[in-house]
Amino acid sequence: MLNIVLFGPPGAGKGTQSQKIIEKYKLQHLATGDMLRAAIREKSPIGIEAQKYIDKGQLVPDEMVIDLIAAELDNHYEVPGFVFDGFPRTTVQARKLDEMLEVKKAPITVMLALEVDYDELIARLVNRGKISDRTDDQDENVIRSRIDIYNKTTLPVMDYYKTQGKYRGINGMGSIDEIFNRICKVIDSSK
Ligand code: ADP
Questions:
Q1: CATH class of 2-190
Q2: What is the pLDDT of residue 73?
Q3: Residues 35, 142: contact at Cβ < 8 Å?
Q4: What residues contact residue 143 under an 8 Å CB cut-off, 6+ apart?
Q5: In sequence order, what are the residues at sequence separation of 6 or more whose Cβ sits closer than 8 angstroms to the Cβ of residue 81?
Q6: How far away, in angstroms, is 12 Cα from ligand 1 center?
Q7: CA 117, CA 173: separation in Å to the nearest integer?
Q8: Residues of the chain with pLDDT under 70
Q9: Residue 191: what pLDDT?
Q10: How far is the centre of ligand 1, averaged over its atoms, from the C-alpha of 79 (Å)?
Q11: Which residues lie across from 164 on neighbouring strands?
């Protein structure tokens, strides 16, 4: 299996690049942010609970996203691999993901970390807030809070994969196709 963790701060382009990766390599996309927003639209109990955190720019509790991912891994047992987008965001989530994949005998192949300058992230998110209905992109304080949490809580996940020798940094500045070409080179050399 080809299992990819696509990592990076809010606004790094994980969603955009995930779409291109799943199309080219025929992988299943698992994006916890998308799953949570779907739960919010459905007004399910998970959605109602998650919205409180998302609106403040905080992470939702680990168990919540771990349960969502566990269910999706069970739903898709015959795919050539997964792209994990926005997950894991804490070291607890990273360890749990390894445990779940261990059962499937299909470990993470590579972790791709998109690297984008702080000012560029803010500019992209403010711009996304103008053209999308994502409420967490409409308020610059919420945007800054998400990037702060990324730096404090999510960055250690990078070390987790560095220790395993799976971390690969990708320059996330430039055109969508330039970045995608960089990603493909790394994926093709990791397979
Ligand atoms: P972005 O990368 O722009 O923040 P996402 O769609 O990945 O967008 O996430 C939106 C929000 O959903 C996050 O700010 C957080 O509140 C919540 N979320 C998504 N994934 C996770 C996760 N793995 N752990 C905790 N919270 C998450």
A1: alpha beta
A2: 96
A3: no
A4: 10, 11, 57, 122, 125, 126, 129, 136, 137
A5: 1, 2, 3, 4, 25, 27, 28, 106, 109
A6: 13
A7: 8
A8: none
A9: 87
A10: 24
A11: none
**Where are the domains positioned within the chain?**
2-190
At 121 the pLDDT is 95
DSSP 34: H
Pocket flag, ligand 1, residue 146 (CB < 6 Å): yes
- Chain center to CA of 130: 22
Ligand 1 pocket check for 65: Cβ under 6 Å: yes
What does the chain come to in residues?
191
> Which among 136, 139, 149, 155 is the best mutation to test ligand 1's pocket, defined by most ligand atoms within 8 Å of the CB?
136
Please report the pLDDT score of residue 171 as a whole number: 98
Going from the Cα of 15 to the center of ligand 1, the distance in angstroms, rounded, reads 11
| Res 77: pLDDT | 84
Q: Please give the single-letter amino acid code of residue 37.
A: R
Distance between CA atoms of 12 and 87, rounded to whole angstroms? 14
